Amino acid sequence: APPMLANFDAAGREMCTVKSSRTSTPLQALNLMNDVTFVEAARAMAQRMLQSGADLDAQLKAGLNVLGADISERKLAILRTSHARYTQYLADHPEAAAEWLSNGEWKHDASLSAEQLAPMAAVASVILNLDEVIVRQ
């Protein structure tokens, strides 16, 4: 299997696999946080989150819909804190926000500013890296 799929326990093609194994390794997080495909996915998810509601909680809940389960107040509070930290960091480093938003081929909605989209994309990346999203079925 390609290296990225091997990190996610993809089965070899030499034989049939009835049940795939499920693991969680740092290499998976490295792929999910740095591979351009996943960076673009986080940006697209962030755009949908921003367009889903006027307030931050509604936007975060829209992102947490990928879990397909009830959203705990604890997770929501952690994501609020993360969003505040990313907003502050990216406001202090606008070149980092612009670089991150320019990776890949997917172009975001021009009506959304980098100051809005970049922190929400960072939060979306966190959501996409939750154990419930990656490993559990």
What does this structure look like?
It contains eight helices and no strands. With 137 residues, the protein is mainly alpha-helical. Helix 3 packs across helix 7 and helix 6 crosses helix 7. The mean pLDDT is 86.
Secondary-structure map:
Blueprint: H1 3-7, H2 26-34, H3 36-52, H4 56-64, H5 73-92, H6 94-102, H7 114-128, H8 131-134
Summarize, please.
By secondary structure, the chain is mainly alpha-helical. It has helices at 3-7, 26-34, 36-52, 56-64, 73-92, 94-102, 114-128, 131-134.
List keywords for this structure.
137 residues; single chain; globular; mainly alpha
Strand content of the residues, in percent? under 5%
Q: What is the subunit organization of this protein?
A: single chain
- SSE string, helix = H, strand = E? HHHHHHHH
Mean pLDDT: 86
Radius of gyration: 16 Å
The tally of beta strands, per DSSP, is: 0
Count of helical regions: 8
Share of helical residues: 55-70%
User: What structural class results from the helix and strand content?
Assistant: mainly alpha
Task: List low-confidence stretches.
Answer: none
Largest sheet: none
> Judging from the principal axes of the Cα atoms, what is the shape?
globular
Span from first to last CA? 22 Å
